[in-house]
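pasting for the record
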Amino acid sequence: MPKKMVCFCQDLSKADIVRAIEEGYDHLETLKRFTGAFMGPCQGKMCAANVVKLYSEITGRPVEDLRIPTMRPPVEPIPLGLLAPKEGGDDDA
């Protein structure tokens, strides 16, 4: 049977999510913390719908009643040049 990927950033399959819920991580926030879903480079932009839909199917909770876990900064990609020191090093040294 082919592996069904739910979160490509964190390499989480459907089986990983199902197993986590069966182990007791049955709240989206605890599922996020245990599996890393919603926490990859995309910050849940690519996987949120997949994870929430699967979670709804497994738990029987309606999608409309679910809240996607809080996104943490950086929500938008940041160019590395903004974080790097300017050429010539630190002027304050």
